[in-house]
């Protein structure tokens, strides 16, 4: 519905914003997303597509530029939610967690809404992003602590 | 943006709704002429009735090409809804379709335009889903054949009047043929290819 009103540049901006939000939500736990969403007032919404699980084929490419091949199938859950104001959000999540797909779809719909985009960013996405970065840097630090530096001594003759 | 403004929802409870709708259609096919109800609730795009929408959500998938008549394809709503919820391909050639959705039986093309299946694969035929005006009023028809004890009486109001005479080709084509599902809101009646119809006076 927004496609008709927005210029192409705005639309790609909107798409980019949705992508950034999706990247955070996909790496967050269901309970965390639900916890942050519960704290805010949710707009009226309905399930356009009930959450469902299915398989998608994961494709790979040898060495980054080789011929594509089918690596295997992965379980994916998806959902679509529509707000009463018309925005439709889509959620895809790896695994069988259908509630997560539904929550992601709900967040995606709210990100597209002009009034709610700011709230969802500050109340949900920002704390989740901070937690994600914290989690990643902690893991990196844990891994870094076990790093071993090897020295190669030049062996002198004799 | 892939946002669709007015796309009606699918089933509220996908599994149970599809199962109960399948049961209704199966009972209707097993008892030709009996009126079955579809309890499942789904959004209805454009001119689609509740029963038609439930049948589409239950029986259509990416392997079932669907043909839409002029009434159904008057707006892109129906095709878009089918694509989103069922991923069934909507095709222009009715002779290879698995299902045909007929919103306006008045303009129903000759039955030869649909698939009758082959003698080896009689199941590769088109199932017509016709939206009619009423399944409780109108001229009476007498049905007989497998699944009917003696004869069944069906009252159906629809145009064109010769629709049921045209279905007589099922007798000569067997095992090939056309199966028909009549839909009026949430009521459905099936007329499988084995059923013989006759107009009934009074």
Task: Jot down its keywords.
heterodimer, A: 158 residues, alpha+beta, three-stranded antiparallel beta sheet, 3 strands, 46% helix, disordered N terminus, B: 202 residues, alpha/beta, Rossmann fold, seven-stranded mixed beta sheet
Straight-line distance between termini of chain A: 81 Å
Read across the widest sheet of chain B, the strand sequence of neighbours is 1-9-8-5-4-2-3
Assembly state (oligomeric): heterodimer
Uncertain residue segments of chain B: none
Radius of gyration of chain A: 21 Å
Uncertain stretches of chain A? 1-9
The portion of residues assigned to helices of chain A is 40-55%
Report the helical percentage of chain B.
10-25%
Write up what this structure looks like:
The complex is a heterodimer of chains A (158) and B (202). Chain A has 4 helices and 3 strands, in the order H-H-E-E-E-H-H. Chain A has helices at residues 8-26, 30-39, 98-112, 117-145; strands spanning 45-61, 68-83, 88-94. The radius of gyration of chain A is 21 Å and the shape is extended. The relative contact order of chain A is 0.15. Residues 1-9 of chain A have low confidence and may be disordered. Chain B is an alpha/beta fold and 202 residues long. The relative contact order of chain B is 0.18. Chain B starts with 13 loop residues before the first helix and ends with a strand. Chain B is globular and about 45 Å long. Chain B has one domain (14-101, 112-193): 3-Layer(aba) Sandwich (Rossmann fold). The model of chain B has no long low-confidence stretch (mean pLDDT 91). The interface between A and B is medium-sized, with 19 and 15 residues.
């Amino acid at each position: 519905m927004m496609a008709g009103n927005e210029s192409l540049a705005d639309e790609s901006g909107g798409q980019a914003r949705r992508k950034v939000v999706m990247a955070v939500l996909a790496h967050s736990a269901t309970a965390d997303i639900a916890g942050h969403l519960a704290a805010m007032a949710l707009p009226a919404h309905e399930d356009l597509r009930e959450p469902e699980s299915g398989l998608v084929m994961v494709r790979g490419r040898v060495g980054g530029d080789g011929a594509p091949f089918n690596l295997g199938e992965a379980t994916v859950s998806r959902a679509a939610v529509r707000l009463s104001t018309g925005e439709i959000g889509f959620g895809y999540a790896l695994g069988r967690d259908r509630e997560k797909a539904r929550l992601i779809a709900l967040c995606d719909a709210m990100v597209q809404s002009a009034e709610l985009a700011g709230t969802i960013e500050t109340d949900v996405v920002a704390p989740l992003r901070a937690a994600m970065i914290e989690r990643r840097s902690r893991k990196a630090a844990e891994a870094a602590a076990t790093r071993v530096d090897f020295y190669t001594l030049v062996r002198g003759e004799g | 943006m892939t946002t669709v403004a007015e796309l009606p929802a699918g089933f509220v409870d996908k599994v149970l709704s599809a199962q109960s709708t399948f049961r209704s259609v199966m009972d209707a096919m097993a008892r030709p002429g009996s009126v079955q109800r579809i309890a499942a609730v789904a959004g209805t795009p454009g001119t689609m009735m509740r029963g038609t929408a439930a049948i589409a959500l239950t029986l259509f998938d990416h392997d079932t090409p669907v043909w839409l008549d002029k009434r159904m394809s008057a707006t892109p709503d129906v095709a878009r809804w089918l694509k989103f919820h069922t991923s069934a391909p909507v095709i222009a050639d009715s002779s290879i379709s698995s299902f045909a959705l007929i919103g306006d039986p008045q303009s129903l093309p000759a039955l030869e335009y649909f698939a009758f299946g082959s003698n080896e694969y009689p199941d590769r035929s088109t199932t017509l889903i016709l939206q009619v005006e009423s399944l409780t009023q109108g001229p009476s028809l007498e049905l007989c054949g497998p699944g009917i004890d003696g004869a069944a009486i069906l009252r159906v109001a629809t145009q064109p009047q010769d629709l049921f005479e045209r279905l007589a080709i099922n007798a000569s084509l067997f095992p090939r043929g056309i199966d028909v599902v009549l839909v009026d809101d949430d009521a459905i009646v099936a007329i499988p290819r084995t059923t013989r119809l006759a107009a009934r006076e009074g």
